[in-house]
Amino acid sequence: MSDQATTAAEIARRAKSNLALALACLPAERRRDMTTFYAFCRVVDDMADDPAIAAEDRLAGLEAWRSCVAECMGNGDPVLDATVLLPVRYGFPREWLVEIIDGVASDLGRVRYEHYEELLQYCYKVASVVGLVSAEIFGCRDPRSRDYAVKLGYALQLTNILRDVGQDARESGRIYLPLEDLRRFGVTECQILEERPGEGFFALMDFEHERARALFAEADEALPALDRTALLPARMMAQVYREILEQLKRRRYPVFRERCRLSALRKGWILLVHLGRAWLARSIGS
User: Fold this and answer.
1) Which of 1, 4, 28, 151 has the fewest CB atoms within 10 Å distance of its CB?
2) Residue 259 maps to which CATH number?
3) DSSP classification of residue 139
4) Which range of residues forms the domain containing residue 164?
5) Looking at the predicted structure, is the pLDDT value of residue 19 above 70?
């Protein structure tokens, strides 16, 4: 990071992300550690994407952070110094943090995935592992929560990919959609890179939409009753992204014109509804 004094809280505040909203329901200590972890994810992602820095320098920066995480060693950066302590505090494998860095580092090349299974491997590193770490910080007790985190990570990342098809192509020449799917629906890379969607493109997006919807359903099935309250932030994220996914389909994928998102009012309502349900469940339980 260029600003060594930047704190996790400042990064979260600037990002104004859906996850930052969801963290509002956590107890203070867990919220602090999730804010640290979120900032870590944000920093390494930004490190990989910064066009003002040469690709080899970005890769070197990521490798330096990777070494610190792997060796449980700080470097004076407040975000990294706090993050390397999380595996010790919560007992999750340090390799999970390494996998996240490896995942974002893969964005530095010419991003193409031939098969859906290859795309899922990428989604696992940049989203499902984020879910696995989050579940530990949330305080989940049922081992099945890890399956929920993995499935939900796939669903969230695929939704992100669908929403950002145009932005990824325009800003970095990346195409995350599997090339075998493009061929199946008669879509060329040039059509996406030049923002010329045809009927085949909309059929392709419908196909990927159904995949994402199925992944959300699989996550629902994996959600263990014991950890429903602990996973409240994840469940809020699931609803936000589910609604974005359905908005994409309803509006016929305007991905080359705008980035679909929920209003602050709608996201606030989702937060209030989930908090109310959690409060009611605790009241009935007591």
Assistant:
1) 28
2) 1.10.600.10
3) T
4) 110-278
5) no
75-128 confidence digits (pLDDT tens): 999 999 999 999 999 999 999 999 999 999 999 988 999 999 999 999 999 999
Reference 154, options 115, 116, 123; nearest CA is 123
The contacts of residue 179 (CB under 8 Å, 6+ apart) are 112, 113, 114, 189
pTM: 0.92
Kindly report the length of the chain: 286
Q: Is the separation of the CB atoms in 133 and 97 below 8 Å?
A: yes
CA neighbor of 36 nearest in space, from 81, 71, 91 = 81
Residues 174 and 125 both lie in one domain: yes
Do 145 and 261 reside in the same domain of the chain?
Answer: yes
| Lowest-pLDDT choice from 18-32, 65-79, 160-174 | 18-32
DSSP alpha helices (H): ranges in the chain? 8-15, 18-22, 28-49, 55-70, 78-83, 86-90, 95-105, 116-123, 129-138, 145-163, 165-172, 179-184, 189-193, 199-222, 232-250, 264-285
